[in-house]
Amino acid sequence: MSRSQDPQRPFFPFGNPFRMILPKSSSLSPRLVAILNSFEETLAERLKTLKPKDCKEIQSLSWMISALNSLFAIHTDVKSLITSLELPVSNWDDKWIDVYLDNSVKLLDVCIAFSSEISRLNQGHLFLHCSLHNLDCATAEQFLKARSSLDGWKQHVSSKNPRLEKCFSILDNLVDTLDLPKIKNSSKGKVLMCAMYGVRVITVFICRVLAAAFSCSAVKLSDLKVRETCLWSEAFTDLQACVHGQVRNALSSGKVAVMKELDLVDATVTKLYPLIQITDDAEAMRSSITELRESADILSQGLHLLSKEVDGFFQIVLTGRDALLGNLRVGSDLSNSTRKNNHPEWSTVR
Questions:
Q1: N or C: which end of the chain has fewer CB within 10 A?
Q2: Which residues, 6+ apart, have CB-to-CB distance to 81 below 8 Å?
Q3: Closest CA to 52 of 232, 242, 223
Q4: Residue 35: how many CB atoms within 10 A of its CB?
Q5: Which residues are within 8 A (CB) of 47 and not within 5 positions of it... i.e. 6 or more apart?
Q6: 129-161 confidence digits (pLDDT tens)
Q7: What sign results for the dihedral spanned by CA atoms 48, 51, 54, 55?
Q8: pTM score, two decimals?
Q9: Whose CA is closest to 206, among 75, 322, 84?
Q10: 75 φ, ψ to 5°?
């Protein structure tokens, strides 16, 4: 994706991404403090909800679905905060806008990578479907076709998706620019930047966990350090320790996948594969076939729901970006109109 159609704006690099943006300052009015505190307390609660009583529950599509659902809600929360601040886009600093537009493109690319991987896993379901169909026929020839389909499934799920590799580099870049620039003269701007910092941290965290789960690699799963002054920092640190620890343990134990639904299918395939050649153990084969059919259906349903959540997150990022660009264009048109009214001769210029 490219920003070639966006208004041309300079890009400003920033220094230490973990510097303080908004110290607890008495310069903020009670109303602004209340708005920020309400946002951060809601964010903390969303993070606490994401941490299950048993961290092993994180190894599931259902947790990934909940994580994306929470991310959707957090991005909706910050939109509400912007409305409460009554801070029009015309008052946003160019630097804020540049970073927002740049990051939104990166997040859209991450969503595309996730959708690509979900589609790839769904394609693997076709191998399972063909194998089950052939096993129902109960002939030697069909059994051979069933084994061939299971071989195809194993090769397919073990292959790598190049989009995910690019996804990690995108997320690394977002980590390097987590903070937005310091705000000096705008109290509302300070509140907005502090809220956006929280949104960006949680977004990067969840996207990196999902990328690690999809790719079965915890190499890029480094811990994020956040400012202790944020009301959500303790909940985030607690959740991060639980999630990262569980993902690392799962991958270090030799599991084929972080997602237990995918791991269960793999275990069932491994058990069924040699039984196909044993014609005198029909009962064990029937049991394994039933297990494979059930586990494959659960995986397919989970991937379908996860795909919907990825699409939902993609849409909220896209609509937020489009709304900002629309406001920028309106502001530019109004500015041009004002200049023409002040200089009537401009209206004759083509």
A1: C
A2: 35, 39, 191, 192, 195
A3: 242
A4: 20
A5: 70, 202, 232, 235, 236, 238, 239
A6: 999 999 887 778 888 899 999 999 999 988 888
A7: negative
A8: 0.83
A9: 75
A10: -70, -30
